[in-house]
Amino acid sequence: MQTDRTLPAGVAASPLRSPRPRRDLFVALALAVGLAAVWPACAQPAPPAPAPAAAPIRIALIEGLSGSFANAGEAVYRNLLLAVERVNARGGVRLRDGARPLQLLRYDSKGTTEEAIAMLRAALDAGAGVVMQGNSSSAAAALVDALNKHNEREPQRQAIFLNYSAVDPALTNEKCSFWHFRFDAHADMRLAALTEVLRRDAAVRRIYLIGQDYSFGQYVLKRGREMLREKRPDIEVVGDELHPMGRVKDFAPYAAKIKASGAQAVLTGNWGNDLTLLVKAAREAGVDARFYTFYGNGLGAPAAIGEAGVGRVLAVAEWHPNLGTPASDAFYDAFRQRFPKPQDDYVHARMHAMVELLAGAIERANSTQAAAVALALEGASLAGTPLAEFHQGTLRASDHQFIQPLVVSEMQRVGTPGVRFDNEGSGYGFRTVLRLPPAQTELPTTCRMSRPSPERP
């Protein structure tokens, strides 16, 4: 089912103006939204009728917006909406024939690959030249394949695919596509950051590997073992176990095995209840080990894990709210002002970077034609964007993988040193353990990309 939501009044629908001098864009966004709210009360005399709005540039979000994954889909939508509003608050995307606003459309995949493909067709029929998706690597792979075929079959209706969360390394390796760009660190990159912390912790001698029994969970354990062998051959793997995904209600037997093994660390790709129940069971069993996770700071996880995670749960991401710089704090404060409910507090810098780089690529290409925008995205950098003061990153041309910092952080109570902000009002936040610059997160690629060669406008 398609739901077409236009942007808030005063942002996408406001009359477009010529470029203004550089100013604090986060403040500009707040002013733009605030002005829209108070204008009717202060308009004396009534303003002239606005000029017809320029045709928007349509972006389609294809995500699970109903069912068991609806909260994750809505969290993505909030990030993308604020990023789009920020671009529109400064006048939209500047093209030779005038500026145009971005418009974010919502398409509910209901968490299934089949429905994601159906929503792709609906988005293309609605004129979207950009599709965005991320929560599921299997859905992402299917979308890449479908878009490759569509773009070859209908060159006049081509589109690009911007991926913010699907982390299967194959998507920018053997299955890479000219039309696909990934803005999240893939699984190998995240594992490399986590195992770098383990490499530096000489006290860890025994580690337990545990994961969900499906492709992603299996991959994390396999590659985790390989990376540990390379970086810390002295660490003994005292357990390597897979469990049914989403079906285990009592992790006490697993916790008992971890305790009996004497493990000082646990490496897992678990997420959702499979992560929170595992950590809680480990605490109840008296397991004295730290959990190296992909998603310990993910949606709802800190509140669900609670006290069991303090000093024990580590996570990896491109950014977190307690990075501790003024520009990072301003970015986070702007999000909290726009979405003040604690349950809406789920922020990812990479999603905002994705929209900023898209807007810049359209301007450099002076076109919304998909191939021209894709070529302009290759090698694009965050330098000169509102995010550049606290986040860096470049889209590698060879495979369309975004190379950015990675931060490993540790769960702590809010108010402890380095933890000014908590997650989702839980009272728990994360402090930085290790921050790797882009040059240290980059990994080789096996991508052999086939590129079209359209003339640039």
TrEMBL record:
Signal peptide: none annotated. This is Leucine-, isoleucine-, valine-, threonine-, and alanine-binding protein. Keywords: Signal. The keyword Signal applies. It comes from Piscinibacter sakaiensis. Belongs to the leucine-binding protein family. Residues 56-412 form the Leucine-binding protein domain. The keyword Glycoprotein does not apply. CDD domains: PBP1_SBP-like (cd06329).
